[in-house]
Task: inverse folding
């Protein structure tokens, strides 16, 4: 598997509501405990999701030849091009509705979350987000094309968790400065969720086509 193509997808995994959740938890009163619970959920969800998507890709590979990762006309690349088209449509939809788009109501509820809820959130922001499912399917297809095993996806899984840990690390390392700055970042991301969604879609498109 070409890690130069796969590892950057970890950034897309945590972009959007995922990193917004991480920022919210990093501003909580018990930030370390709650954020760690969230990251455990992210780790378990990503590990499970990649395993399932690798199984899907392997099953499809038995019926459809994905071809080589270097062959731009292979079935594997055709699937990725379909994903690109869907992402572009999603970005356009967010742009058209930017005046009325509001952040998900569940994001506000996270401000009073405990560790158990943070753990569930870590699971759900990975396993129910269409963008993350598409990323993990892309990883599964790359693994199948290269005839690699699940073990080869471990760096991707680790980097996904590492990206999610950035807000907590900033909170711990920068102390009061981060604690005072993060609420402003959290509010900006909530108020501009449409822009965050568009950026996520475009990053994913670039990474797929690169």
Result:
């Amino acid at each position: 598997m070409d890690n130069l193509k796969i590892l950057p997808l970890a950034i897309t995994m945590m972009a959007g509501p995922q990193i917004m959740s991480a920022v919210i938890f990093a501003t909580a009163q018990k930030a370390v405990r709650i954020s760690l619970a969230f990251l455990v959920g992210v780790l378990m969800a990503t590990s499970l999701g990649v395993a399932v998507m690798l199984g899907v890709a392997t099953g499809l590979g038995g019926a459809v030849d994905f071809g080589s990762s270097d062959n731009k006309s292979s079935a594997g690349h055709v699937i990725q091009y379909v994903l690109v088209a869907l992402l572009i449509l999603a970005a356009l939809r967010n742009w058209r509705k930017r005046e009325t788009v509001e952040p998900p109501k569940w994001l506000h509820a996270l401000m009073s979350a405990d560790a158990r809820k943070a753990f569930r959130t870590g699971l759900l922001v990975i396993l129910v987000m269409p963008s993350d499912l598409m990323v993990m399917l892309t990883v599964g297809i790359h693994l199948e094309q290269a005839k690699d095993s699940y073990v080869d996806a471990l760096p991707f899984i680790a980097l996904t968790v590492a990206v999610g840990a950035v807000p907590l690390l900033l909170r711990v390392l920068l102390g009061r400065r981060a604690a005072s700055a993060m609420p402003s970042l959290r509010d900006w991301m909530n108020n501009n969720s449409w822009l965050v969604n568009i950026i996520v879609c475009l990053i994913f498109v670039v990474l797929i086509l690169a």
About this structure: Residues 3-209 form one domain. The chain has one domain: 3-209. Residues 31-63 form the longest helix (33 residues). The two ends are 15 Å apart (CA to CA).
